[in-house]
Specification:
about 20% strand; globular; alpha+beta; 13 helices; Penicillin V Acylase, Chain A; 8-stranded antiparallel beta sheet; about 500 residues; 6-stranded antiparallel beta sheet
């Protein structure tokens, strides 16, 4: 008993001290999204990888949609949320859409040209910022995915829009990848932005703060940005050219609260040490990107997305709260607020329909298996979406009263209820749950090469039939994953 009291006392003191630091430095703790970008020469199979955990709080829903190419009338306008208008193009590209109804910045996309887009909140110092007719926010990534054939083209499209009407939110980093390149585009409220390419043999980790540092806009192979990005920071007093220091976008524009956030620092630090050939101390300065210890594969990234700081000083001790790692003041990579996690595997040696795959873990990556959703699928299983994509495109911001009641047969609630039941007794249940998850993923990976070879052979003669095979295969696995999300299975 005495030993238990000592352990409890030590634990309480530790938590209180961390909470004190956290309260002072993490006013933006509610933002917990996390992303990884991996260049094509840093992976075993030569694919580019974009991985992301989407974190949002409250009673929320995730819908899956496959949106086809759409044709619009000449001079039709996109009506932005704040009232501004952008001229619509005549034809938009097809895409897979992870939609969170009503949310401003939570959707993720993969289009028919492999262009994959997601984002992380990154608060800036900017409180003013020039906006025309309210500027743009939510629609920026949708316009990119509807119009771009490459990651770099997507950035140029977004940059032109921001230069024209401005970005309405404090700050954000968009992660954009295709099979050839991976980029981070960091935007600031108003008309300021910068983008940097990830070196092909490097990995980049993005929590909820800016990671782009020194920039060179003359080098348009690796950088793009607003022409006055340095001059504006100088005018605002965020950068002093006379200091003798190189301009650093992250330090000039980043909110001190986000840069000093314990949750941001801890997540980047731990992911770095899981993947990098160099090990870092918590207080070190972290690089924009780095070479991995070994070339990476999809399974390596899955392990990062489901991580809770195991083996570090931030790990939840198993003696407390049934060992539930999601209940902690330091935000985890796999956190209580995860709504979904995905890994985009982008391969240029296969047709896009087969070569680009969104491996999606509904709700929480430490509990749910990653399901492969091929870019070439024609449709989504009924239980994974509410009705037709056309209504979702129109009604995204229409308030939903009783979101659970109106969609209680939705697959997402099965995943939500499953994770909530496990969290009540995580320590006793997670071994069995993890065993089911691992077995599912292992079986999928073991069959992937043979399945894709079979589909490719059909695709060369009959693409329509091959896409039906992809649709049936993905749907079968999605339904199987749903059936596994029950404690009695």
């Amino acid at each position: 008993m005495k030993k238990l009291i000592i352990k409890l006392t030590y634990f309480i003191i530790l938590i209180l001290s961390i909470q004190s630091i956290y309260a002072q430095t993490d006013r933006y703790g509610q933002f917990s999204c996390f992303s990884i970008l991996v260049g094509k020469n840093a992976t075993i199979d030569g694919s580019t990888i974009l991985a992301h955990n989407e974190d949002d709080y409250g009673k929320l829903l995730v819908d899956w949609y496959k949106v086809p190419r759409l044709i619009y009338d000449t001079k039709e306008e996109i009506i932005l949320k704040k009232g501004g208008q952008i001229e619509q193009v005549n034809k938009t590209y097809s895409f897979i859409w992870l939609e969170m109804p009503g949310m401003e910045f939570s959707d993720s996309y993969m289009n028919e040209w492999d262009v994959t887009i997601t984002s992380n909140e990154c608060s800036s110092k900017e409180t003013e910022g020039e906006l025309i007719n309210g500027g743009i926010g939510y629609y920026l990534r949708r316009i990119m995915v509807e119009r771009a054939k490459s990651a770099k083209e997507a950035i140029k499209i977004a940059g032109e829009i921001i230069d024209s009407i401005g970005y309405l939110y404090s700050g954000r980093s968009y992660c954009i990848a295709d099979p050839d390149q991976a980029w981070i585009m960091s935007v600031v409220k108003g008309k300021h932005w910068v983008a940097q390419r990830i070196p092909d043999d490097h990995v980049a980790i993005i929590p909820n703060y800016y990671t782009i540092e020194e920039i060179n806009l003359i080098d348009t192979v690796n950088f793009l940005g607003a022409a006055d990005i340095v001059d504006y920071a100088t005018q605002k007093g965020w950068y002093d050219p006379e200091s003798g220091k190189e301009f650093n976008f992250r330090m000039a524009y980043g909110s001190p609260a986000s840069l000093n956030s314990m949750g941001n620092i801890a997540r980047k630090w731990h992911a770095l040490n899981l993947l990098s050939e160099k090990q870092y101390d918590f207080s070190d300065e972290f690089p924009f990107s780095f070479k991995p210890q070994n070339r990476l594969e999809i399974q390596d990234i899955m392990l990062v997305l489901q991580d809770h700081y195991e083996g570090t000083q931030f790990e939840m001790h198993p003696d407390y709260n049934a060992g539930n790692p999601h209940e902690n003041v330091i935000t985890r990579i796999c956190s209580a607020s995860n709504q979904y996690g995905f890994i985009a595997q982008l391969r240029d040696w296969l047709p896009t329909d087969i070569g680009s795959v969104l491996w999606i873990a509904p709700r929480r990556p430490c509990i749910q298996p990653f399901i492969p959703w091929y870019c070439g699928i024609n449709s989504i299983p009924d239980k994974y979406s509410r009705g037709d994509y056309t209504e979702a495109l129109k009604q995204h911001f229409t308030p939903i009263e009783n979101i659970y009641g109106q969609s209680k047969s939705h697959a997402f609630w099965v995943f939500v209820n499953y994770t909530e039941e496990i969290d009540k007794n995580y320590g006793d249940l997670i071994e069995k749950v993890r065993s089911k998850k691992t077995a599912f993923e292992k079986e999928v990976f073991e069959k992937q090469d043979a399945f894709e070879e079979k589909v490719l052979a059909v695709y060369k003669k009959n693409p329509k039939k091959a896409k039906k095979m992809l649709t049936n295969y993905t749907s079968k696995l999605a339904i199987k994953a749903l059936s596994l999300s029950k404690l009695n299975n």
